[in-house]
Write a structure and sequence with these properties.
The protein is of the alpha/beta class and 473 residues long. The protein has 15 helices and 13 strands. The strands form 3 sheets. The chain has a 7-stranded mixed beta sheet with strand order 3-9-8-7-6-4-5, with helices on both faces. It has a 4-stranded antiparallel beta sheet with strand order 10-11-13-12. The chain binds pyridoxal-5'-phosphate. The site of pyridoxal-5'-phosphate has 15 residues, from helix 5.
C-alpha cells in the first residue's frame, strides 16, 4: 500500500525502511538455518535424479493478481516454497555440480544496484558506476596476472562470457566460414558448443580432441592442427579448461599457450570453475592461464557470488569491440574526453545489470584475504578428503584433485552396479548431495568442494558415512 500519491510504486522512505527491516527479519533466520535444510532439496528424487513424482507445483494461478497484497507474508510463503524444495547450493554438504555459495553482502550490493538502477552501458550516463565496474574488472585482471592493456566485462556467467570470446576470436582471426577450425577437448564444457552455434560456426568446424586422463593433450592437438592445415583449413581458436566440470582437471595451459602462439591461434581459457584458484601460490598447475587471449571466469562458482555473475578478460581490446552501434542518433554520444570502450560496445547487452557492485562491495567488506583463505580451505579440504578415501582401500580415486574437485568409485565394480547403488543410497539420506559422471564407461562419483559453509568436519562426516557403508554391504 502506498502512502505516496504519485504512483503505488513510489514508496516513501518509511515504507522502504519497513519493508527492508521486515525482509531482514524473515531472511535472517532462514539464512542461519541453511545447514539444517536438505542439500539436494525436498523435491529431489535421488533414484531418478529428477523431481519427485508427487511434487506439488506451488504456482498454478493463470492470471496475475488484480490487487496487491502485503510483502511480509508473501516473503514468508516464498521462503517456504522456494527455500526448501530446490537444491541448496550453499549447504555445507552440497558437493554436487560446480556451485559455490552466495555471500550476503553481494545480495545487499545487488539490492543497492537495483535501487540506484544506473544505466551502465555507457560512461556518460553513469560515470561513477561505470568506473566502479572498471575497477572491479581491473581487480580481476590483477588477480589473474592479466596485462594492464587488456580489458574485460562482467557477464551473466561463463556461457555468455565464452560467447563473447568466440566472437572476439572470429573477429581477430578472420577466415572463410566452413574452413575454420576450433579445437576443444572432449571434456570441454558444452556451453562452448552453444557459443559456437550462436556465432554461426558449422558443426564440422569444431575439432574435438580426445582427452588423456581428462586433460587436453597438446601433442594430439598439435597433430590435428598440422593435419588440418595440410588440408587447407584455418585453425582459429583453441579452448583450454582450467578445471573441467566432470573431473576438475586443469589442461596443460602453458603448453597449449605455446602451441597457440606458434600457430597463431586464439587461445581461450575456460576458468569458469578453476580460474580463481590462480590467486593461490600453491596452484602452480594454473601456470599459463594468464597467457590466454581471453579468459572466462565465474565469480558465482568459487568466488562466493550469487548466480548471474560471470566475467570475461581479453587482451586484444579491438577484437572484443562489436562493429558499431552506438552511433545511433538516439544513443548518448561517445565521451570524447575519455575515448573509452563502452560496455555496450564490447558486450552483446545494451541495457545491463550493474553486476560490478555486488562483487566490488563484497571485496571491500570482506577483503581479498578472506576470499584467498576461502579458496585455500577448499584446496586443502579436497586433498584431505580424497586422501582419506584413497587410504581406506575400498575406493578407487578416478581423479585426484587438481583444484577442489575429485572423483572416485568403488573398487572391483566392473559393471558399475555397486557404485551406482552407493550413489543412490548416499543421496537418499538427504544429508549429502553428490553428482556423478561417466568416464570411459565407468560410473564415477564427483565431489566438488566450493561452498564457504563446508568445513572439514562436514567432509569427515561424509568419509565416515562411506566407511560405514562399505563395512555394511
Ligand atoms: C568448466 C565450465 N565452463 C563453463 C560453464 C558454464 O558456466 P555458466 O553456467 O556460468 O554459464 C561451467 C558451468 O558449470 C563450467 O563448469
Amino acid at each position: 500500500v502506498s502512502e505516496n500519491k504519485r504512483s503505488p510504486f513510489d514508496w516513501s522512505s518509511k515504507q522502504i525502511e519497513a519493508a527492508y527491516s521486515s525482509f531482514a527479519k524473515t531472511i535472517g533466520p532462514w539464512w542461519e538455518n541453511i545447514s539444517n535444510l536438505s542439500p539436494a532439496g525436498l523435491a529431489h528424487d535421488p533414484l531418478t535424479h529428477s523431481v519427485k513424482k508427487d511434487w506439488v507445483h506451488p504456482f498454478t494461478d493463470g492470471l496475475p493478481p488484480e490487487r496487491g497484497m502485503d510483502l511480509e507474508p508473501l516473503i514468508q510463503s516464498l521462503l517456504r516454497d522456494l527455500g526448501q524444495d530446490g537444491q541448496v547450493v550453499g549447504h555445507p554438504t552440497y558437493l554436487a555440480y560446480v556451485a559455490g555459495a552466495a555471500n550476503p553482502v553481494a545480495a545487499i550490493g545487488q539490492s543497492l544496484a537495483m535501487m540506484l538502477n544506473p544505466y551502465t552501458g555507457t560512461f556518460s550516463t553513469a560515470p561513477a558506476a561505470v568506473q566502479l565496474e572498471d575497477q572491479t574488472i581491473r581487480w580481476l585482471m590483477t588477480m589473474m596476472g592479466w596485462p594492464e592493456q587488456g580489458t574485460g566485462l562482467l557477464s551473466t556467467g561463463s556461457s555468455l562470457a565464452i560467447f563473447s570470446a568466440v566472437l572476439a576470436a572470429r573477429e581477430a582471426r578472420p577466415a572463410a566460414p566452413g574452413k575454420r577450425r576450433v579445437y576443444v577437448s572432449d571434456q570441454a564444457h558444452h556451453c562452448i558448443g552453444k557459443a559456437l552455434f550462436a556465432a554461426g560456426f558449422l558443426p564440422e568446424e569444431t575439432a574435438v580432441i580426445v582427452s588423456e586422463d581428462g586433460r587436453l593433450n597438446p601433442e594430439r592437438a598439435a597433430d590435428r592442427i598440422r593435419k588440418d592445415k595440410a588440408m587447407g583449413l584455418t585453425p582459429l581458436m583453441l579452448v583450454g579448461t582450467a578445471g573441467t566440470t566432470n573431473l576438475g582437471r586443469v589442461d596443460a595451459l602453458n603448453d597449449l599457450a605455446d602451441l597457440c602462439a606458434q600457430e597463431n591461434i586464439w587461445f581461450h581459457v575456460d576458468g569458469a570453475y578453476g580460474g580463481f584458484f590462480k590467486v593461490l601460490p600453491e596452484a602452480k598447475i594454473l601456470k599459463g592461464l594468464e597467457r590466454g587471449d581471453s579468459l572466462s571466469l565465474d565469480p558465482h562458482k568459487a568466488f562466493c557470488m550469487p548466480y548471474g555473475t560471470g566475467a570475461l578478460l581479453v587482451k586484444d581490446v579491438n577484437a572484443i569491440r562489436w562493429p558499431r552501434g552506438l552511433d545511433a542518433s538516439y544513443m548518448p554520444p561517445y565521451d570524447a574526453g575519455h575515448m573509452r570502450l563502452e560496455y555496450s560496445d564490447i558486450s552483446p547487452e545494451l541495457s545491463r545489470d550493474f553486476r560490478g557492485l555486488r562483487l566490488w562491495l563484497s571485496l571491500k567488506v570482506f577483503g581479498f584475504q578472506a576470499f584467498r583463505e576461502h579458496l585455500q580451505a577448499k584446496w586443502q579440504q579436497a586433498r584431505s578428503t580424497s586422501a582419506a578415501l584413497r587410504d581406506h582401500g575400498a575406493f578407487e580415486i578416478v581423479a585426484e584433485p587438481d583444484l577442489s574437485l575429485f572423483a572416485w568409485r568403488l573398487k572391483n565394480d566392473e559393471n558399475n552396479e555397486k557404485t551406482k547403488r552407493l550413489f543412490q543410497t548416499i543421496n537418499a539420506t538427504g544429508r549429502f548431495f553428490l553428482t556423478s559422471c561417466e568416464i570411459k564407461g565407468k560410473f564415477t562419483i564427483r565431489t566438488c568442494i566450493l561452498g564457504f559453509r563446508t568445513q572439514q568436519s562436514d567432509l569427515d562426516d561424509l568419509t565416515q558415512w562411506l566407511f560405514d557403508y562399505v563395512e555394511k554391504v
